[in-house]
Write a structure and sequence with these properties.
Helix content is about 35%, strand content about 20%. It is an alpha/beta fold and about 300 residues long. The radius of gyration is 19 Å and the shape is globular.
């Protein structure tokens, strides 16, 4: 495409950022829909996040994605955040605030809806299910909220630091208590064997840590076949490598495993739709997914 004076600028902030596949998503969508925009990755050094957000607004950047390690840290520097993002304590999409007397961005979370859409496409429902969420960081908190809000029967939030899991579980339960969805239980990761009772192949497990991310492809959060006997569906939110060690454990013990590439796709599509007002068809989403898949496999 040819950049001109009317070309709109979007981007993604993180550190590190060289690995990001988000430009591939947004460039493909923009080209297919004839939208005059560019999408650029910005590496922001520690301590420079506030300056980066203010600078992005001053430079008339129309929208941003936020990735590790800034999904929570960005919140104080926004003019407003969406209710679901506030409850999740995690923001990954910024939309320029066009209200009068405002100078900044509004924060949203499309990670939750991105995973929900990916699971819907895979034919998996969270309703009345028993869920294990591995990791209580920014993504884990958002996913625990998604599961509870989607009427899961029970959500077990496992984390090495159980105090962190307790804090996250309390916040999620408090936010949903009026709806009668007080179903998140915090546990120390080391206590996972307490869950290995009753029928096998009954849990949906969502792996929300960075363990197993390339280049540390042989690492796995739980290395115990007994645990995986109880897993019917396993989602690893990592997508590099294509098949993680966690996924191999799931499939070797009779479960069905998925990586996080569809979640990446749909969280990006939702951000794109918010920024542009365009609706992405299933046909176009499939085309973008194929390009992402070709880049990963």
């Amino acid at each position: 495409m040819e950049i001109n004076g009317k070309t709109k600028l979007y981007g993604i902030i993180g550190n590190p950022i060289e690995h990001t596949m988000s430009p591939r998503i947004h460039s493909t969508l923009a080209d297919a829909l004839g939208i005059d925009m560019v999408y650029v990755p910005f590496q922001v050094a520690k301590g420079q996040l506030e300056a980066a957000i203010k600078g992005a607004y001053a430079l008339n950047i129309c929208g941003m994605n936020i990735t590790v390690p800034y999904k929570n840290a960005v919140i104080p520097f926004l003019t407003q955040i969406d209710k679901r993002a506030q409850i999740a304590g995690s923001v990954n999409t910024l939309v320029r605030d066009e209200r009068e007397n405002q100078a900044g961005f509004i924060g949203y979370n499309t990670d939750m809806s991105g995973l929900w859409r990916a699971m819907q496409e895979d034919g998996i429902s969270l309703k009345n299910e028993q869920i294990i969420v591995l990791g209580a960081g920014g993504v884990g908190r958002a996913i625990a909220f998604l599961c509870a809000d989607s009427d899961a029967q029970q959500v077990y939030l496992l984390n090495r630091n159980v105090a962190k899991a307790d804090e996250v579980a309390a916040k999620v339960n408090s936010s949903l208590r009026q709806s009668g969805k007080d179903c998140v239980t915090a546990m120390a990761l080391a206590d996972y064997k307490k869950l290995l009772t009753g029928a096998e192949n009954r849990y949906i497990v969502l792996q929300c840590t960075s363990v197993g991310l390339a280049p540390n492809v042989d690492d796995v959060v739980i290395e115990d076949n007994d645990f995986y006997h109880y897993v019917k569906f396993g989602y690893d939110l990592i997508y590099t490598p294509w098949e993680t060690e966690f996924m191999r454990f799931v499939t070797a013990n009779g479960g069905v495993a998925y990586n996080g590439l569809k979640m990446l796709l749909y969280q990006g599509i939702e951000a794109f739709e918010m920024w542009t007002g365009c609706k992405v068809t299933k046909e176009l989403a499939d085309k973008v997914y194929k390009k992402l898949q070709d880049a990963v496999v």
